[in-house]
Design brief:
With 213 residues, the chain is an alpha/beta fold. It has one domain: Rossmann fold (3-Layer(aba) Sandwich), CATH 3.40.50.300. The protein has eight helices and nine strands. Strand 5 and strand 6 form a beta hairpin. The two termini are 34 Å apart. Bound molecules: guanosine-5'-monophosphate. Guanosine-5'-monophosphate binds next to strand 5 and strand 6.
Length: 213
């Protein structure tokens, strides 16, 4: 066999391995859930930056209006309350929830399929109830990560310093957080977000282990 033959066999073998590897990521879900203000969005962004070719963000649908610099199709798919209801009726959601009174959020089935079709795993930044809902549906194909704030007091301070919420909204988020903290042991792993650098490397480690990358 000349060298050309050898290299083409090697290439076919490598392509095969690559396809197999993509198939392994296809169908996988990584769920980051936490009380509001725990820093889960920062951790999700870190994971996306670290594994850009393997993982893509699931853009949720919401009935809330766009905020600040947010963009449709990037931060959320913004639907009117009527459109949201219609899609619920059509069973287009894998999960959906009224996260805050009058405001609905949900994961569209087509969004997840869009990402899997690229051979990538899907990462979610969703609230605790939605996260557990997906975990119960997808079981071993899903990694459910609970991001734990150091304390309720620190969570409250973080929400105040973010200055995006009114005093009432902060009180609502804290009341919700107290309930959510009780569900932490239903998740596969929890990450204490006290020191951001440490939390980021722990997040990397658990994702790597789950996806075997
Ligand atoms: P915000 O309005 O601040 O962007 O998000 C409010 C909350 O809704 C956050 O806790 C966020 O994680 C959650 N959320 C965003 N998308 C979804 C979703 O698709 N499903 C569920 N259950 N919660 C979501």
């Amino acid at each position: 066999m000349d060298n050309r033959g050898f290299y083409s066999i090697l290439t076919i073998y490598e392509i095969d391995r690559f396809v197999l590897y993509l198939q392994m990521l296809n169908g996988k879900l990584i769920i980051f859930s936490a009380p509001s203000g725990s820093g889960k969005t920062t951790l999700v962004r870190h994971i996306l930056k670290t594994f850009p070719n393997q993982i893509e963000f699931s853009i949720s649908a919401t009935s809330r209006p766009k905020r600040g610099v947010e963009e449709n199709g990037k931060d959320y798919y913004y639907l009117t309350p009527e459109e949201f209801k219609q899609r619920v009726a059509n069973q287009e959601f894998l999960e959906w929830e009224e996260v805050y009174a009058g405001t609905h959020y949900g994961t569209l089935r087509v969004e997840v399929e869009r990402i899997w079709a690229k051979g990538k795993a899907v990462i979610f930044d969703i609230d605790v109830e939605g996260g557990l809902n997906l975990k119960n549906q997808f079981k071993r194909d899903a990694l459910a990560v609970f991001v734990m704030p150091p304390s309720i007091k620190i969570l409250e301070e973080r929400l105040h310093s973010r200055s995006t919420d009114s005093t009432e909204s902060i009180a609502r988020r804290i009341a919700k957080a107290e309930k959510e903290l009780k569900t932490a042991d239903l998740f596969d792993v929890f990450i204490l977000n006290e020191n951001l650098e440490e939390a980021c490397s722990k997040a990397e480690e658990v994702v790597k282990d789950f996806l075997v990358i």
